[in-house]
Structures are given as structure tokens and as C-alpha cells.
Specification:
The complex is a heterodimer.
Chain A: H1 4-14, E1 19-22, E2 27-29, H2 30-44, E3 52-56, H3 61-72, E4 76-79, H4 86-96, E5 100-103, H5 105-111, E6 116-118, H6 120-125, E7 140-147, E8 153-159, H7 160-174, E9 181-184, H8 191-203, E10 206-209, H9 216-226, E11 230-232, H10 235-244, H11 246-253, E12 258-260, H12 268-277, E13 282-289, E14 292-299, E15 311-312, E16 317-321, E17 330-336, H13 348-351, E18 354-355, E19 358-367, E20 373-378, E21 383-385, E22 388-390, H14 392-399, E23 405-415, E24 419-428, H15 436-446, E25 455-458
Parallel strand pairs in A: 1-10, 3-4, 3-5, 4-7, 5-6, 9-10, 9-11, 11-12, 12-13, 24-25
Antiparallel strand pairs in A: 1-2, 7-8, 13-14, 14-15, 16-17, 17-19, 18-19, 19-20, 21-22, 23-24
Helix pairs in contact in A: 1-2, 1-8, 2-3, 7-8, 9-11, 10-12
Chain B: H1 3-14, H2 37-51, H3 57-62, H4 66-76
The chains are: A alpha/beta, B mainly alpha.
Chain lengths: 476, 77
């Protein structure tokens, strides 16, 4: 298999009548998904090959067909979460420069874009042009924007070859097969959820796709109804399920063969809790970035390494580097392998983090004597909230839109469920009567949920260097 | 302070796309489109800040509707 679309083609040829995707509203077989995808690609074939097409859709069969249709037409899918703040969508669109935006009318109206917009029904009813295009594995398949070290989002340009390599590793290491029934309550707009979709399509399993809002009852119900074998969720979800639904977990999850999560900190208690619940299966995690997906894997099958993110994936090299770019036992994590992107999208500044095939991740870590990797924070100020990266500068910029704020500083602080949450320090303007709840309301209205500060402190002054620069580290 | 009105305001702030006429004291967490872990955290933080109270973990996890939150706040004041 050379491209992502080959996953669908091969599984359709092998299991045409098998259910590929199940949602709360409907379900479709591989054959039906293939047909729907072809209808989308026939419409999109009128755009030149390698055109960027943005999609802003909730998890659904339509959004999967749209994504695969874009790829099959030889175009590049720019995937945006519908929960992204409007100003952030605008920044992404300015960078990605799409020819078309596909999303519901409610969303496309909100962003007021200057390019053509269409909803899914519009795509299906539009004129069809069937052009057979050759897609090279090195062609860019999709763009996902992540928070950069500045407030500017950077577009990870992921190729078909990157995805084929990563998916093959997921299948190999975690043992996915056509017999699996995979429960997925993660957004397809995130590398974790999208990787799970690729895996299901690749092996020809059935994917039970939930909306991107955690509804434990729906998850348990679908787990029982479809005899699910795997479940994917962020650590915060696993911790919440353990705390609030321990009996349901025992009842519905004990026969699962795999629960997969990702690489923010997983509380030790969550690891041991799931170990006790999964009588026949394993909890596993991975470490990766959108730019270098699934770079390590960790299967928590033995005791003693609960805080590790595992060992490098097959064909992936990881080294730790000090500030002089020399290999060290504890330092910045650099990754090399076919899972690493070649470039960011229209972003030479961010490309400086990609050199000679190595990705400088900005994450800090160390290996133990057995070669297991442990994460130790970041060497910049990026905050990791339940796997979502938050740039302090972006939050600060939005808070400073309040005229009663003179200065704002954001840091990450530890949280037992989310790993980290955003903490905000505010110096009020003279005589300002601003309250903490007013600041929070402003943030809720103007940024994505995970970026909203959950701890706010008013300060009289910030600690500063002799040059007047705020000493962030003193606030931590 | 009008507790009832303040709690309603918290919900309308945390769910800005929800029209005020759709606010329902008995509407459950699972019936909200966007009441995820982050929204939950924001509801708790705003509540603690507005009423100057501290909610225990048991209280925090038991809140699954505006009514439940109202009862919880009343028990503190």
C-alpha cells in the first residue's frame, strides 16, 4: 500500500459488504464508503492536483468520505476542528490558502471566508469530473495546524508515505486485525483520532465513531452492542471513566483486548486501574507529535515502567540532545524516521526545527537503562493540556484585548486529570474593577476550551530582569 | 446575590452558543452538545470564583445539571 486511499481500496476489495463505519445516526459498508468517497473525489477533481481543500466537519461518515475524497482527487486536506476559535481558523486559512472550504453552513458563515465554501450535500450534487490521477507516496496528504512556540499556528504537512509507515507500525505493534471493533470518541481533526481511522481502514476492521464529546453512557452502550475489542481515548478521559464509572468499566471493558491512549502524563493510578479492569487485554500509549506521529509505543503489560512512553517505534530513531546539539542522556528529544514530515506548510521559520531528517521536538526526556523513554516537560513555554498544545503567547494576546488588563502572563500548572492546565497572572490597569470571572468569560468566548485559564491570579507587579523582561520561571 | 440568576449566567457563559431560551435547570450533562471535561472545569471554576466557595471532588463529579449545581451552591451559602 502506497497511499491512504489504498487502505480503503484494499479493504473494499476484500470485505465489500462488511460494516466500515458506525455512528449514532447511521452506518456504512466498505463498498458504500468507497462509492461515497468516489462521488466526492469526482466533484473535487476539477481542482488542480495538490490544491488545498479545507474541511471543518464534526465526526461523521460524511466527514470521512470528504477527507478520503479529497485525497483520492489528488488534493491536500487541510483539517480544522469545528471547535477552533474563529481568529485561529482565519490564521490557518491565511497560511494554507485553500481553493475551497467544506463545512456546515453554520460554520462557514461564522468564519466569513473569502474563498468558495460548500457543505457536504453541495459536494454531492455538484458537477462531476472523473479524472484519474497518480498520487505519489511523497505527496502531501493533509495539513493539521498545531500551536507553535510563538502564537502563530504551524501547519504540519503530512505525506501519504508518513501515514503508510505510521499505520504499518500501529498495526504491527498493537496487533490490530480485521476482526477488531474499534470505539473512537476522538476528533478526526486531531492526529490521534485520524491515526485510529487510518488503522481501521488499513486492516478492514469496523470503526464505531462517536461525536467529539465524551458521553460515557453512549460509549458503554456501543461497547456492549458491538462487542468492541479496542478503545482509544486521551488520558484525561480514561482517568474520568475510572473515577466516575468504575463499575461500568468493569462490566463493559473487561473483555477488550486494547485500550490505547497518548502521551501526556498518565497518572500511575490510571495505568494500574486499567490493568485491573482489562482482564484479557492491555493498556498502551504512544509518544508522538502531528509532525512525527507514533514515534514510540508503550504496552503496559509488565510492572515498573508506568511513567514511560515506551521504546522507539520500528524504524524510528530517537536521540536526546543538549543545548550544544550533542547527544546526551537527558535532553531535547530529536526524532528521525519515515513518520517525520519533510516540511511545515509555508513556514520557513518552523522548518528550522527540521534538519537532516531530524525533528527537534522541544520536548525533554531521558532513557532508562532498558531503553525506555520518559518525558520531562518542554524546553519552551508550550503548555500541554490533555494532549493539546497551548501557546502562552496566544492566550496572553487574547487576555490583553481587555482594556482593563495592563499585563498578562500565562504558564502551565500541573493538574491531576489533564496533566497540565493554563494558569493566568494578570496585572490590572490603574483603577480597573475587573473580576476573575469577567476575565474567564472573555476567554471562554474567544478561545478554544482547552486554552481557557482555569486558575487566575491578580498581581500587583511581575518579577522582571534588569532589562524589564518578565521572569516567567519565577511564576512557576 | 441572586444565586439562581448567577448560576444561569455561568451556564450561558460556558455555553455561549446556547440560546438563553434553551436554558433548562433539569437538562443533563449528556444532553448538552459541548459539556465536556473542559466545560465542566470552567463551570466549577466560575462557580467557585463567583460564590467564593470550594467544591469537593465528590461534589464536582456529582454535578450533571444546572439544578445540581444550584443545590450544591446553596448548601455552601
Amino acid at each position: 500500500m502506497n497511499t491512504i486511499f489504498d487502505f480503503l481500496t484494499n479493504s473494499t476489495a476484500s470485505f465489500p459488504k462488511k460494516i466500515a463505519i458506525i455512528t449514532k445516526e447511521n452506518k456504512c459498508t466498505y463498498e458504500e464508503l468507497y462509492t461515497l468517497t468516489n462521488m466526492v473525489s469526482s466533484t473535487l477533481s476539477k481542482y488542480p492536483q495538490k490544491s488545498v481543500i479545507s474541511i471543518i466537519l464534526e465526526n461523521s461518515i460524511d466527514s470521512i468520505a470528504t477527507y478520503l475524497g479529497i485525497l483520492h482527487s489528488g488534493c491536500i486536506a487541510h483539517i480544522i476542528s469545528p471547535n477552533t476559535a474563529v481568529h485561529n481558523i482565519s490564521e490557518q486559512l491565511n497560511s494554507a490558502k485553500p481553493q475551497l472550504i467544506i463545512g456546515t453552513k453554520a460554520i462557514t458563515d461564522k468564519i466569513n471566508a473569502s474563498v468558495v465554501t460548500m457543505d457536504f450535500d453541495g459536494i454531492l450534487s455538484d458537477n462531476k469530473v472523473q479524472i484519474k490521477r497518480d498520487i505519489d507516496p511523497s505527496d502531501i496528504a493533509y495539513l493539521i495546524y498545531t500551536s507553535g512556540t510563538t502564537s502563530k499556528p504551524k501547519g504540519a504537512a503530512v505525506s501519504h508515505a508518513n501515514v503508510v509507515f505510521t499505520t504499518s507500525n500501529i498495526v504491527k505493534v498493537l496487533g490490530y486485525t480485521k476482526s477488531d471493533i474499534d470505539i473512537l470518541p476522538l476528533p478526526l481533526s486531531h492526529s490521534f483520532g485520524l491515526g485510529c481511522l487510518h488503522t481501521s481502514l488499513c486492516v478492514g476492521s469496523s470503526l464505531v465513531l462517536h461525536k467529539n464529546t465524551l458521553d460515557p453512557i453512549e460509549i458503554f452502550k456501543s461497547s456492549e452492542m458491538y462487542c468492541a475489542t479496542t478503545f482509544a481515548a486521551v488520558p484525561a478521559t480514561l482517568t474520568k471513566l475510572l473515577h466516575e464509572f468504575p463499575d461500568d468499566l468493569k462490566r463493559y471493558f473487561s473483555n477488550m483486548r486494547l485500550v490505547i491512549t497518548n502521551s501526556t502524563s498518565i497518572p500511575k493510578e490510571t495505568v494500574s486501574g486499567f490493568r485491573n479492569i482489562l482482564k484479557k487485554g492491555n493498556l498502551a500509549t504512544y509518544y508522538g507529535l502531528t509532525e512525527a506521529s507514533r514515534s514510540t509505543f508503550m504496552i503496559f503489560s509488565s510492572y515498573g515502567k508506568e511513567e514511560s512512553v515506551g521504546t522507539p517505534a520500528p524504524g524510528v530513531i530517537i536521540k536526546l540532545v543538549d543545548e550544544n546539539n550533542q547527544s546526551t542522556k537527558q535532553g531535547e528529544i530529536w526524532i528521525k524516521g519515515h513518520n517525520v514530515i519533510k516540511n511545515y506548510w509555508n513556514d520557513p521559520e518552523s522548518d528550522k526545527n527540521l534538519k537532516d531528517g531530524w525533528l527537534r521536538t522541544g520536548d525533554l526526556g531521558h532513557f532508562d537503562d532498558d531503553g525506555y523513554l520518559y518525558l520531562r516537560g518542554r524546553n519552551d513555554d508550550i503548555i500541554n493540556v490533555a494532549g493539546e498544545k497551548v501557546s502562552p503567547q496566544e492566550v496572553e494576546r487574547i487576555v490583553k484585548l481587555l482594556t482593563e488588563v495592563e499585563e498578562a502572563v500565562v504558564i502551565g500548572t500541573e493538574h491531576n486529570v489533564f496533566g497540565q492546565v493554563v494558569k493566568l497572572f494578570v496585572k490590572k490597569a490603574n483603577n480597573a474593577l475587573l473580576t476573575k470571572s469577567e476575565v474567564m468569560s472573555h476567554c471562554i468566548k474567544n478561545m478554544e476550551r482547552y486554552k481557557v485559564p482555569t486558575i487566575i491570579e491578580f498581581v500587583a507587579e511581575f518579577p522582571r530582569t534588569e532589562y524589564g523582561k518578565i521572569k516567567r520561571f519565577m511564576l512557576k | 446575590m441572586d444565586i439562581t440568576n448567577e448560576i444561569k449566567k455561568i451556564f450561558l457563559e460556558v455555553f455561549p452558543t446556547m440560546p438563553p431560551q434553551e436554558f433548562d435547570w433539569n437538562k443533563l450533562q449528556k444532553e448538552y452538545e459541548n459539556w465536556d471535561s473542559f466545560a465542566h472545569l470552567h463551570i466549577l471554576t466560575l462557580t467557585e470564583e463567583k460564590f467564593r466557595i470550594s467544591l469537593s471532588i465528590d461534589e464536582s463529579t456529582s454535578i450533571n445539571s444546572a439544578k445540581k449545581l444550584l443545590d450544591c451552591v446553596k448548601s455552601h451559602i
